[in-house]
Design goal:
With about 425 residues, this protein is α/β, with parallel strands linked by helices. It folds into two domains: about 260 residues, Spore Coat Polysaccharide Biosynthesis Protein SpsA, Chain A (Alpha-Beta Complex); about 150 residues, UDP N-Acetylglucosamine Acyltransferase, domain 1 (3 Solenoid), CATH 2.160.10.10. It is about 25% helix and about 30% strand. The strands form six sheets. Strands 1, 4, 5, 6, 7, 9, 10, 11, 12 and 13 form a ten-stranded mixed β-sheet that branches. The N and C termini lie far apart (about 50 Å). The N terminus and C terminus are likely disordered.
């Protein structure tokens, strides 16, 4: 990590309904989805605190985005580092005004809270390894109006969903195209990560009549509207090539990819892990009860009464009965895995129950889901608070929250809520 940046404030736009993450976000906001056995927003806040940020402005819009975040976070986020330091973020929220894009959200925050400093912007569905000191240093050295963190993307099809920038010799962004229809004609494969450093002059721009005129035209998004506008007007927009990881976890596919990448890439202490077994079996929880649970799981695994194999993250107070197997999976707090059940290449969120002799494979199970006995779930996404009866078979499907699936039902290729 480079020097701690002088930038102390961050804006996080959190707009939209999160439809690409359905069914996980049908009844909650994207930042409040469980991610690595915590809420996604907690990992974002932790990264900001470690980078030296002290104040965060949350661009909440809509009922769930505001309610769930405020109820969880309140007005402070605190973190105790491994060396004993206590880091605190002061939290502010967007006023009750509807925004029409992430740039408009930041503008509302800047105006309401009278922000006039350089400002970091991070999206609410972004997981990123950021060296803010290095990025800020490049930003200052080039006297940039705006600096955009860019990440090389080699998947040509993925480029259709990204903003792509062409860099000049002096790091200036010469061309920017949002979501090119033809990736072969894209200016480059350097993708906009949605992480920005805004100069105090750009923050003033967001509070200006010039920007207000863009809003009146319905142009309030950084990638689609503001960045191309600024480049065309001759403002100096600089690109910062990002070395670390970056994931937009706004889709189910990227959510899974990010989860298992970070499970292997992050050190145990960043994952809140207190016990490591056979190098790749991670167990969370620091209380005496948790430690006792860990000893029990390790002893029963050594006796082959349960199977723990591959890269596994086990949350606090998880119950794994004899005969059960957890393989290359993430199992959240208070989950119960009954005898004979097998969870493979999957994510099971908190307080769910996997019934006896059931199989969960390459799937995501939402919060407080009850899976009966001898159920088979493959390559599927189950929303929160779903009840699945004995003997059901669910493959290649999405099940919306609060549904009851009758015993012995077979569901395949269902896209959306059951009728």
């Amino acid at each position: 990590m480079g020097r701690i940046a002088e930038i102390k404030k961050t804006a996080i736009p959190i707009g939209g309904l999160g439809t690409r993450l359905y069914p996980l976000t049908v009844d909650t906001s994207k930042p409040m989805v469980r991610f690595l056995n915590r809420f996604l927003i907690d990992l974002i806040m932790e990264e900001l605190a470690l980078q030296g940020i002290s104040e965060v402005f949350l661009g909440v819009s809509g009922y769930y985005n505001y309610k769930d975040l405020y109820d969880h976070l309140g007005e402070r986020f605190s973190l105790r580092t491994p060396d004993g330091r206590r880091l605190v973020l002061k939290l502010r929220y967007q006023p009750n005004v509807v925004s029409i894009g992430n740039a408009h959200s930041v503008a509302l925050l800047a105006d309401y809270y009278d922000i006039n400093d350089d400002l970091l912007v991070v999206q609410g569905d972004t997981v990123v390894s950021l060296d803010l000191g290095s990025m800020s240093k490049l930003h200052d050295a080039h006297e940039a109006f705006m600096t955009i963190a860019l990440k090389r993307v080699d998947d040509r099809e993925a480029l259709r969903q990204l903003g792509l920038a062409k860099l000049g010799k002096d790091w200036t962004i010469e061309t920017f195209v949002e979501k090119p229809a033809n990736p072969e004609k894209a200016p480059s494969n350097m993708a906009n990560t949605g992480v920005y450093v805004l100069s105090h002059d750009m923050v003033k721009f967001l509070r200006s009549d010039e920007f207000s005129s863009l809003i009146k035209q319905g142009r309030g998004d950084f990638g689609r509207d503001v960045i191309p506008y600024l480049i065309a007007k001759g403002y100096k927009i600089v690109g910062y090539p990002l070395d670390g990881y970056w994931f937009d976890v706004g889709t189910l596919e990227s959510f899974i990819k990010a989860s298992f990448y970070l499970l292997q890439a992050l050190p145990p202490e960043r994952l809140g892990v207190s016990t490591v077994y056979h190098d790749t079996i991670y167990m969370m929880g620091f209380s005496s009860r948790s430690k006792k649970d860990h000893v029990d799981l390790i002893e029963r695994s050594a006796q082959k009464r349960i199977e723990l194999r591959g890269h596994v993250l086990i949350g606090r107070h998880v119950s794994i009965e004899d005969g059960a197997a957890i393989v290359d999976s993430i199992v959240d707090n208070y989950v119960i895995v009954r005898s004979g059940a097998k969870v493979t290449n999957s994510i099971v969120m908190d307080r769910s129950v996997v019934g006896a002799d059931s199989t969960v494979e390459s799937s995501i199970i939402g919060r407080h889901v009850s899976i009966g006995s001898s159920v088979k779930i493959v390559n599927s996404f189950i929303g929160n608070n779903v009840v699945i009866g004995d003997g059901a078979v669910i493959t290649d499907s999405q099940i919306w929250p609060n549904r009851s699936i009758e015993s012995n039902t077979e569901i395949n290729n269902r896209k959306g809520p059951p009728s």
